[in-house]
Amino acid sequence: MGGHGHAPPYTVPNYKQFTIKGIPQLEELEKALEKKGLRDPWIRNEAWRYHPGFGTKWARARKAFFRGFPLGLGLAIITVGLEKMLTKKHDDDH
Question: What's the pTM?
Fold first, then answer.
């Protein structure tokens, strides 16, 4: 993949770096499943969520919801200021 002789814009991480060892939540889940006689071979697919590079659940949520907040707030203030200036000038003419 990648085509046209270009390298892909990303690198796919090795799946072996994501293990449930050292992640208390996933280790508890694995133990609870073992008590019921079950096993989840795909549990490692959830390990990325607990990787330090991705932050906590709340940090990810904050980043998702407030990513453009400063820019949006600044543009809203500029828009309101321009609107007040233009409507004030327009009201003075009549």
Answer: 0.46
